Amino acid sequence: LEVVVVLLALKILYPQRIWLNRGNHEDSEQNKKTSKETGRGFDKACMEHFGPTSGPEAFEAFYGVFDWLPLAAVVGGRILVLHGGLGNGQWSMEMLRSVERPLHSSKLVSTLDGVVYNVLWSDPLVANPASPIETFGVHVSPRTKHNTVMKAFGRDITEGFCTREGFDLVIRSHQFKKSGKGYGVMHDGWLMRVFSARNYVGRHDNDG
User: Fold this and answer.
1) Is the dihedral of CA 112, 117, 119, 122 positive or negative?
2) Would you say residue 97 has pLDDT above 70?
């Protein structure tokens, strides 16, 4: 709660210097699910801070803002920044720009036939020369939620997308890194993972 308040305040103060993208947790249903599974979703944080009457109102007000957040950002015309990944990679930036906002949580799965959901949720495959078929191309995501829509993608998908759209690099987050300093370069330099939350959900000894 405190983090999002600070970020929104900074966006108001420095509108041309602070850029906020939407991620998979800017989905009200996902946060309610987090509360059920771990006891500490954003809805519960609002309830604890603002009370049983104002808490749900604050929660809905925040999500009224999240529904307006962009799905990606482009840095210098050459770097694409998004939360999740590319899915099957068969989409364009023009398609993504066509998505109308506000985009309610109930439409995340179906918008652009799953493209938006993959931008928020999909993961890159770690290259394995011993099993190239399993780590190239598009595969069903191991994540359980909507895994018929959600995809995992290989290096060839990242390179093909970047070449077609004129990008040098895709920067994404969405997965904590067990070792290192909270970032990792993948897919022969076409993709970088950056994860800023250390000790993820209090159970993982990861750096941010």
Assistant:
1) negative
2) yes
